[in-house]
Amino acid sequence: MSYALQYQCLCAAGYNIPAKAAGDVMALQQVRWYICTSTSAYLPQGKLQGKGLLCDWLSSGPAHSQQRPRVLLLSPSPADVPEFCCCPGAQLMSPSPASHQPLLYSLYTYDCVATSSSTTMVKFADDTVVMGLILANNLEEIKHLENWCQENNLLLNVSKTKKLIVDCSKKQERHYQPVMINGTTVERVDSFRYIGVHISQDLSWSRHTNSLAKKARQRLYHLRHLRDFRLPSKVLQNFYTCTIESILTGNITVWFENCTKQDRQALQRVVRSAERITHTELPDLQTIYYMRCQTKARRIVKDPILPNNRLFSLLTNTERLKSSFYWQAIRALNQGN
């Protein structure tokens, strides 16, 4: 494997390595030594073999080598991910155990994938979503996940597991077979919160926007108190950006374009209230949305390795697609050029 590819594998695994270390043979070997020695104590033997470039590279590394790095400095980054800095004569400083847990968990669950072409398994940290078509009440994918967890000494928390069915047909409500995990029936809900976004069974965003508006209005109370203390408008604006705007614009590229007019007006009323409190002009949500779309779209277009890079060439003409992030991102890029 070339050193440039080794550098890309480490970056994809969540390690922040300076770009100047991509061609440094010694630096990459030292990074490999540390990861191998820190993961060998937690992962079963043979767990990484045949699981991809990064796993093959690590599994063939010097897991029990006694040669210590001499020019490598490790320090925990704010996101609890080791940050590697090469500096001559530095000593090896072992980060906290939590710093390499994301990599260990990613490697441990690397082979937990969907077995059917109609099913997708989405993993984010320790949250796993099984998403697929319901074909004749086929629940084999759930059983496969349950068996995988048993074989790998992991436990599914059934009390936190929810079932959401999206049925856009206008026919009479169908009856679906209940999902069973370890003999316990999984609760069916009409919406659930995943990575900060409320997803409803009717694919509407009213519940999500209502939740955002309620949380943002609560923060306005603190903004009014700061105004009563006669703080400068710049300080009030910074407080709004950090505590209120960050709530209103969380994952905005996913849901904003599909919101109803009433939902957008409810969110915009919070912005107008903040403008009256701070006596400054604040950016509206529509402007922030287009800016976020342009930024994210440019980042995706520049990286052909990303799986959603090919989605920018879609020609399908549907109303739901026109309101999706990709369609709006392409429109924002065209307007920006």
UniProtKB/TrEMBL annotation:
Q: Where is the Alkylated DNA repair protein AlkB homologue 8 N-terminal domain?
A: 205-246
User: What are this entry's molecular-function GO terms?
Assistant: 2-oxoglutarate-dependent dioxygenase activity; methyltransferase activity
Coiled-coil segments, which residues? none
Q: Which domain of life is it from?
A: Eukaryota
Spell out the protein name for this chain.
Alkylated DNA repair protein AlkB homologue 8 N-terminal domain-containing protein
Q: Which InterPro entries match?
A: AlkB_hom8_N (IPR015095)
